[in-house]
Amino acid sequence: MAQDIEKHQVNMMEDVEHSPSKVSTDGEFDTDLTPAEQKKLIHRIDRRLVVTVGVLYCISLMDRTNLSAASIAGMTKELKLGLPFNNSEVSRYNIVTLVFFTTYVVFQPPSTILVRKIGPRIHLSVITTAWGLVMLGMGFVHDWQGLAGLRVVLGILEAGFFPSCVYLLSTWYTRYDVGKRYSVFYVLGSLASACAGILAYGIMQMAGMQGLGGWRWIFIIEGTLTCVLGIGSYWMLVDFPEKAHLSWKFLTERESKFIIDRVNRDRGDAKVQPFSAAKFFRAGLDIKIWGYAMIFFNTTSVTYALAYFLPIILTENMGFSVGASQCLVAPPYALAAIVMYTTGWLGDKYKIRGPIICFNMILCLIGLPIMGFHKSAAVRYFGVFLTTAGANSNVPATMAYQANNIRGQWKRAFCSATLVGFGGFGGIAGGLVFRTKDAPAYHPGLYACIACCLLTLVIVCTTSFVFWRQNARAARGEIELEDSDEDHQRGFRYTI
């Protein structure tokens, strides 16, 4: 199964490379690069940038969500995580999942400022290596409080990763190139979710070596892998376009200029303005940003609920063995990878975003009731496929939606931070919706996930109507959309 998924990933990456963004062949801006050179350059950026951050995100997602695999591998029993926290209805396991997001949310806004100041190569490689060391430490904890403390530190370090990657990708690609790239980036994360259970099951077989339980080896082996990739990423990552020609000769100066001119032609915000707290936080006055953030909250509430509890649900609700549950996590995420890339490709081709999000949410709204209420375990497992595909596909779809409808570098940075910050709040919700006392049916958690999907449909329909009206007014010359003091480009239109 893992080999099939990897083969599919390679095919999708080749699709990205052989379906490059529209390049400048019409003379809309001056460039001395030939069309063949332009295509070759875009291919090279795809391979170097998208694949590198995608692999790192694969490790990031695996590290933050491997609690469920460790839980059924003996961690819950050894650390007594199933007991209630201070005689409340919340278990210690819920608390351990929750505390990660307290720091994960708080430290995201400063991270998007920091990545601009010191550059993505240093920023991302350092925090990746550091959280790998934290993962190693989790393999040696002796009580649940120590595990919770390390999860707090993990949240601080991982807070800088996802928003920085989202922001970095948005600075390199035009609005209708970014959907496929976000999809490939997140597809690699889905690969982690698909393979994490199988990998964890294999590592569990090391139980007893050096006197350590199988769940401890999950953290030790995966933490070591993270450290190795974190160190290597310093040489693989690239900087922002305006500095890319200085980063290990990745681009020549004229190639860097082509990328900047190309982005400027598309949305006019490639030039970076000096940081101003007023400019950065003023973006918070735009209600659209909070709408995108709420969509992301609804989406991640479902994705994190699946990530943290799916193996547990497969075991307790559907009656599969521990080994089968670890391995049965993979097929739904394989389907999610296919759906998210397909919808990302369609979104870029037809220049649509809202309908893609609605389609994904409808998949969830079909899958959740099946997953929760059908009498047959096999049919309920089919519902897991639809829910996992719809929820995970909506992550890159939402990222593309906000990236297409925001202009200005610091507004883009603020939007990335708030988007992913609300994703962290979604992680808190996702870590709490499936309560131990609701086992094995977990109906309240399913109702919460259904409510999130319905709210997303309402928000997308509302913003799409507003965008349609605003575009019509702009076409009549009544207003100028997303006007910014960072540039003077005119003619911007929202993507519906």
TrEMBL record:
InterPro entries in the record: MFS, MFS_dom, MFS_trans_sf
Keyword line: Membrane, Transmembrane, Transmembrane helix, Transport
GO molecular function: transmembrane transporter activity
Biased composition annotated in UniProt, kind: Basic and acidic residues: 1-20
Keyword Metal-binding: no
Coiled-coil spans in chain: none
Gene Ontology CC terms, in alphabetical order: membrane
Pfam families assigned to the protein according to its UniProt record, in alphabetical order: MFS_1
Name of the protein described by the UniProt record: Major facilitator superfamily domain-containing protein
